[in-house]
Q: What sequence folds into this?
């Protein structure tokens, strides 16, 4: 008798993953020209869209084949699936170490660019979408795992700030791969930025977004795959290393200060007790 949740009991999940992977690879890379630019659609995007269509939380009829327990079992597998891709960074970054050194301060200071989430998103959250304290969690970062941990530790997951960061985290998980892939190929086709600059922009602290972004860039510049992956991987690692501190000591205090200015009549909320 199979135990619930065992590998054999999840045969529906394995079949779905195999079929999606085969179909996505058969469709192959497609290029959509848009004026002087172009959007490069990768198999990863097709896999994402097909996965959404068989998610019972999105399409109710899909529950006849993929049940909620398959969805629950699949969630932790994302990290495992990305591990080989992350491991590849180490094998690529080493031989390209001299190129990383030549990138110099640009690679180290790229984390400052993530503060743009505060500059652009906070005014929209406050004055357009009329958010309250949810705006703090939603706009202080790109809301990946380290940023989520900061909000949970400081305010708690059930707080308004926790709700804000979780909404952005879920939206980023669902649509971040698609958006990053399209933006990367579109930006590359414009000819404004160098491959190195766009590769460094791929590292926002998300493995799936990094894979989509660097994959699109590698498709646009076939002879620079190693350089693109090396710079994107190093940028992503530095984002994990420095991004936590920038978010904790710069971005979050800045958003809290801006919120007090935007909502001066609101009483301060006590932080979560450790």
A:
């Amino acid at each position: 008798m199979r135990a619930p949740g065992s590998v054999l009991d999840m045969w529906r999940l394995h079949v779905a993953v195999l079929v999606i992977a085969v179909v996505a690879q058969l469709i192959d890379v497609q290029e959509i020209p848009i004026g002087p630019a172009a959007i490069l659609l990768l198999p990863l995007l097709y896999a994402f869209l097909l996965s959404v269509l068989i998610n019972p939380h999105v399409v109710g009829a899909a529950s006849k084949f993929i049940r909620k327990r398959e969805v629950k079992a699949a969630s932790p597998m994302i990290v495992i699936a990305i591990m080989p891709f992350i491991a590849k960074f180490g094998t690529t970054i080493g031989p390209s170490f001299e190129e990383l050194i030549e990138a110099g301060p640009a690679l180290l200071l790229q984390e400052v660019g993530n503060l743009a989430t505060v500059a652009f998103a906070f005014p929209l959250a406050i004055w357009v979408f009329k958010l309250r304290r949810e705006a703090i969690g939603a706009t202080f970062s790109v809301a990946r795992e380290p940023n989520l941990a900061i909000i949970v530790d400081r305010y708690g997951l059930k707080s308004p700030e926790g709700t804000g960061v979780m909404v952005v985290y879920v939206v980023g998980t669902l649509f971040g791969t698609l958006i990053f892939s399209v933006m990367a190929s579109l930006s590359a086709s414009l000819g404004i930025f160098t491959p190195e600059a766009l590769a460094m922009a791929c590292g926002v602290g998300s493995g799936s977004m990094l894979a989509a972004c660097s994959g699109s860039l590698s498709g646009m510049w076939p002879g620079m795959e190693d350089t693109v992956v090396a710079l994107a991987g190093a940028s992503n690692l530095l984002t994990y290393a420095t991004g936590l501190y920038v978010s904790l000591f710069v971005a979050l205090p800045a958003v809290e200060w801006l919120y007090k200015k935007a909502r001066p009549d609101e009483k301060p909320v006590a932080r979560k007790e450790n």
The chain has 13 helices and two strands. The two ends are 44 Å apart (CA to CA).
